[in-house]
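Troubleshooting log. The previous run stalled partway through. Resubmitting the same two chains, unchanged.
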Amino acid sequence: MTAIIALSIFGISNLFLGFWLSRKTIQTFTLGFLAISMGLTVADWNHEYLWFGNMFRSTNTSINFSIIIQLAAFFVVAFSNAFGQDDEHTHPAEYYAIMLFSVVGAILMVSFDHLIMLFVGLEILSVSMYVLTGSDKRNLRSNEAAIKYLLMGAFATGILLFGITLVYGATRSFYIANIANAIASTPKESMPTFLYAGILLMLVGMLFKVSAAPFHFWTPDVYDGAPTIFTMFMSTVVKTAGFAALFHVFSGMFGGLYNTWALPVYFISMLTLVIGNVTAVYQQSMKRMLAYSSISHAGYMLMTVSSNQATTTSTILYYSLAYTLATVTAFAIFKIVSEYQTGRVEKPENFQAFDGLAKQNPLLAFCLTISLLSLAGIPLTGGFWGKFFVFADTFHRNITYSIIVAVLMSAVGIYYYFKGIIAAYFKTSEMETIQIPGLYKLALVISTVGTLVLGLYPTFVKTLF
Amino acid sequence: MYLLFILLFPLALGSFLLLAKPKNAFVISLTGSIIEAIAVAYVLIQSSQSPNALTISYPWIPEAGLSFSLWVDGINGILIGLTGLLIPFIVGSTANTEKANNPVYQGLILAMQTALVGSFLAKDAFLFYFFFEACLLPIYFLSAQFGGENRIAITFKFFVYTLFGSLFLLIGLIYVYLRTPGAVGSSDIDVLVETARSLPATSQNYLFLAFFIAFAIKMPIFPFHTWQPDTYTTSPVQGSMLLGGIMLKMGTYGVIRLVLPMFPLGLITWGTTVMIISIIGIIYGSIIAIQQKDAKRLIAYSSFAHVGLMSAGILTGSLAGIQGALYQMLSHGINIVGLFFIIEIIERRTKTRELAQLGGITQASYMLSVAFVVLSLGSVALPLTNGFIGEFLLLKSVFDQDMWMGIIAGITIILGAVYTLRLIQKSMFGNVSRITKEFEDLTSAEKMVLVPLVILVLLGGIFPQTVLNYSAESVEKLTQLLN
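Second attempt completed without errors. Output:
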């Protein structure tokens, strides 16, 4: 709670710091701000608070999610040595400030106890993301992505809001607990039909935010067009917050109506897995591949949501953390290599740009390998246990078909993730040593070690949940 | 603690080689692998005197009941012994090549050793799975980085194919694990075995298939073998040795350790079918081996034929079958490493593996041809060689199960003799060809590797009892579970 206030103040002060300080100093300040807010978040551990007219509830689960979100933001800031190709015309202070604001939105999304708070959090996050997507303002693709994201996002928010209205109409409350009670105490026959319509509309609105198929069409274009640093932000922070909110709404609030929403979620998870993985195979651009991979990981996470077990929260947490660490590493390496290759090779975003990376840049190649192995779910890395917990949850419900689909799609996943590894290690090129800033290198090593620790000793974080 | 040492020592040394990149990688790696071999020998002696004394167990993911536990019994002891025994030869076979002092190459071999030993030592099913998949990484990098023609596509197919198979194992394991008693469940192999045995026949039938496919791809047996000849051929020779000599045994080990005791009802349903498929594989592999022009590919197909017989023997579930398979795993490992090395020696000197271009090497190097003949006869299973003991037991077990299957499987010995003798004849005897004219005799480093292997072939054929006694007790316990 104190963390949100602190982050908002830090965000505003960042705007003013921009008058005097250089980008590098602001970056350091922002890292410090995030560290402080993480400390403030941890300080609430084991205390349950209700704030803002009981609309905001801080629990240990919400603290865990907030930490993952802030950790992701921390890595994004650490990797932000440039905001896109048009860097000298950008305004670093504003972008760092917007990032801090969007973290506030994300924290609201994981700690709401009232649907309006969910909506406010979602909007803070989304509006910030629309701006950040278009931040490379002289780049046409960035502009196109921003307008696309805005139009589609506004539409989805509208649908979500409509769903909330219908649910309110049926249950006469916005509070999670009250709605759950109303659903539990009303016999099934006397439940108004439009409650189900409301649930479905809310589902659609939220699935859009986590980019599940068939609501994923914006994802590749927006991820591809946005500056890499904000793609990194979107695919980690937004996804984690989105899933936390989705699960909170559907398990906590509509848990009594599991049989209503489980089937759509279950089919959508399979559809997402298939579409995300199969389309990723055909991508030539690494950035687009990572965009589709983010869709496919939404599929795995939806699988565990659809199982709705007691362990599901901890599975989502673990999966988000493993996915976040691996994704920030992969994007960070993509960013630095594609920046280096711009002007050197024809298409700096394609896999060919990574040819021969291992020869002169063993650290980058190693980190890339670990992160891609983790995304592919291979042992030694956190991604493996993420999949393991997802499969275990799903098996508890005896949903065998989706496991078979998930296994097939994991094998497909290996195919495209390994394209990066093969390019880095087994192809040759003239690539020279890439100069990496010290902070960048440090963050890379930390996120890679984190992935390995998660893979070798998952209890290390599992006990925290 | 000894088990932790033999598990982690190669990895520690391998990581040192990979990170520090010292100049004299060969010496470090060879010394390390010999120390490891001595430690393994010590562990095996200890375990034969007091089984279970060495077992260690640490909590790994206590919330989910997963533990980091290692053990040695008569079954995995043989495979750990095989790994410890073969790695020094595999490392030694790089001597005087450009790979000898390549720290990455040596480091990957040692990392591979940890993964292999880990999967054999594991007492926890998910720990087994963890190493089972982890061993793909070093061998993949080894083969894709240092392999021959078209290596990227071939090793990639190998990786995806085998990983895809092991995902079935994973979901099968999770399915059984979720049914274990207790609040959090347990993934100890013994507990899983007990749980799986009490499952109804329908579940056992499905699970048997899921598990068996994973191991069948790893071995590989017909019809899951399509990755194997290409991968064996294109890998650098040490990679082929690791794949054929040791990694293949992870598949057969998995069937003995998990599939047999866990799914007795599944075995009743599928046993005969899978045995027939294995036997088809034997004949099929042998016939293709007879037609091969490339010597390394020929060995690859012969290995495919041998593993088919092992699989058929194991699936009889009899004492003779499992004992024979264990003994044959050991002999096959020794023989195939020796044979791959001889092909490599020939290739180093003549730059070819084409049988048509070779011939008359006997005249240039008498010792090489003696070693080749002994190792080949071991592979053909001639009495007094190590291959005989294993194949005899295996064939006996298949014959006891079904006479006709036994007879058909017995044809392998004849077919095996045909392709092996053809290999010897085409390469060693006959007229000296243009490229074998200036064939140089063995260097001392090559002798150091080949001579002990030849001695092991003969020792294994004359004194099999030590090994058979070592595994007897554990195998008996296992077969009791099957009746």
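Takeaways: The interface with chain B takes residues 373, 378-380, 384-385, 388, 391-392, 395-396, 403-404, 407, 410-411, 414-415, 418, 422, 425-426, 457-459, 462-463 of chain A (CB under 8 Å). The two ends of chain A are 19 Å apart (CA to CA).
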